[in-house]
Design brief:
Strand content: over 45%
Number of strands: 8
Structural class: mainly beta
Helix content: under 10%
Shape: globular
Length: about 100
């Protein structure tokens, strides 16, 4: 863990947006679009999708994003795709339920 702390110390928080698909009614997917200018390949990306958290690090020390969101997502069936020409990472996460709903 010490190495990870050093590697993210100088990293910037990238621009990102979160949106739901479909935009109305019960959401099926939570989609994150993360702008990563200067990242030439997905090989330098470390992505961790938690049930209500998204953590991304672009090595070496370029970007670091750690966000909590209001939905529980299916981590196992989440997918990510990096577009080299637009330098945008798209993460699509199936929504299980709202994190604010009680069981």
């Amino acid at each position: 863990m010490f190495l990870r702390e050093i590697s993210t110390a100088c990293a910037k928080r990238p621009e990102f947006s979160l949106f739901l698909e479909p935009p109305t009614g019960h959401p099926e997917y939570l989609v994150a679009e993360i702008k990563l200018p200067g990242v030439s390949s997905s090989r330098s990306l470390v992505l961790d999708v938690g049930e209500d958290q998204l953590v991304l690090t672009a090595l070496p020390s370029l970007y670091h994003l750690d966000v909590f969101h209001a939905f529980f997502v299916d981590q196992e069936n989440s997918v990510a795709q990096y577009n080299k020409s637009t330098q945008v990472l798209t993460v699509t996460m199936p929504v299980v339920s709202s994190a604010s709903s009680s069981y």
